[in-house]
Amino acid sequence: MLGVVACLVPAAVVAWGIRQYQNIDRVSAELDVRESEADPLNFLVVGSDSRDGIDDDTELSEGFLDGQANPTGQRSDTLLVVRLDPAVPSIDLLSFPRDLYVPIEPEGNEAKINGAYNNGPQAVIDTIQKNFSIPIHHYMEVDFAGFQELVEAIDGVPMYFEREMADTSTGLHIQEPGCINLSGAQALAFARSRKLQYVQNNEWQFDQAGDLGRIARQQYLLQKSVTRASKQKPDSPSDILSLINFATQNITIDESLGLDEMVELVEVFGSIDGDKLVTHSLPVRNERTGTGQAIVRLIEDEAIDELAVFRGRPVATAVKERIVVRVFNSTDRKGLAGQVTEAYSELAFMTEEPSNAEGRRAITAIRHAPGQRSAAELVGRHLGAGARLVTDPKLTGWNVHIDVGANFTVVTREPGERVVVPTPPPSPATTTVPAQQAAVDGAGETPVRRPKPASARPPRISPSGFGVIPFEAPANQPCN
User: pTM above the 0.70 mark?
Assistant: First the structure.
C-alpha cells in the first residue's frame, strides 16, 4: 500500500500544492527520529478492517460485511513495516501475522497483535517497537474502502492465474485461467484470503497455511501493485484531483510526515518496480492459549536475521552474536581442533571445548541445526578452503559444529565469499524408450512429451515457504 501511495499520491500533492496535502487526516504520535537524510526510514503501515464506505451495492460486499448490514468495530487486518534505505536500491517489507501473540501496549497484557489497534495508533507503534526493537519513524493507515479506491486509481492490478482459485469467505473467485486485471474489490478479496481454495487435477484443494498464506498473497499483490503504479503516473488534472480526493478521504498519516519526505518517497518508488520490493516473513509456531484460542508465537532464534534488517544492524553481526562454535578434529594432525577453536575465539565467536572426531574427513563439514543454514554459512566463510554444510537434527538453536577435514588450510580474519565445497554430481541418469512405445510414437524417435494442464501440477508456494500464490505468466502470455 505504501509503495502504491508513494508512486501516485505525492506526485499529485506536488502538482496541486501544500494546501491540499495538509487536508490529509493526521494523528499525533511519539516516533523515532532519524538523525540525517542519509539514514533509513521505517514506515509502520496499518490496513484497518473498517467497513466504512462499503455497502450492499459494493462489488463482492458479502465477503467484507460478513452478512451484517452495519458491522461495527475495527482491527488491523494488515500490519507491516516498510524500510527505505537511501543507500540500497530496493525496498524491504516485513509482515506481521495478525494472530501473533505478544504483550500489547500500553498495559502489556498478552493478546493477538492485531488487537493493539483497538488502543489507538500509538499503541500499535509502541507494541512493534518494544517487542521487536524496530524503530518506527512514520505511521500510515489505509482502510478497506481506501484500498479498493487505490487499486482502481491505477486501473486495476494485472495478475496471471494458471488455475481456478476461490475463497468463499472474502468473495474471491477466479473462474477462468489467464491474465486477470483485478478490480479493487477483487484485489482486496485476494489480499484478505485466509481460506484459499484452488483446483488441482480437477479437484478443489485448500491452502492449509491460513494467515501465513494470507500474508504471502498480500506481499505478492503489493509487488504487482507497485509495478503497476510505477507505470501509471497521473497525467491529467482529473487524475490528479481524484488522487488528492483519495488521499484526503482514505489515508491517515502521522503529523510529523512532511511534504519533503513524501517527495522522497516519490523519488525512491518512482525508480523501482515490484521486483525490487524485498519481502520478509517472521518464523512462527502454532500454539493455543489456556482457553483454547489459536495463536502463533515468534520463533526468536530463527527471526534474528529477518529482524536485523529492520533494526538497522548488519545481519552477520546479529547472527554472529548468537552462534556457539564447537570444533572436532577429523584429521591426524594433533591439536588442530584447539587451534581452530582459538582462531574463532579471536574472531569474537562464542566457542566450546574442542574435541577429536571418531572418524576422518577429506572435506571439512559444518553441521548446523535445522533452519540455521545462515549461521553455518557465516562460520564457513572464515574457512579458507571451504566446507560442506550439513543439517544435523541432533543440534538445536545456534550451535554450529565444525568437523575439520584434511582439506583445511586456514581460518581467515576477513570473511570470504566462498563457503561450500560442492559435492560431486551423480552420474546422469539415462532413460530408454520401450520398444512398444517407440513403435507407437514413431520408429526410432523420442516420444513427444505433451505438457500437462497447469492445474495438474502442484501449486506455487511463496518464497517464505507458506501460502499458495499464482505462477508468473508464461513468456508468450505477458500479463502487465
Answer: yes
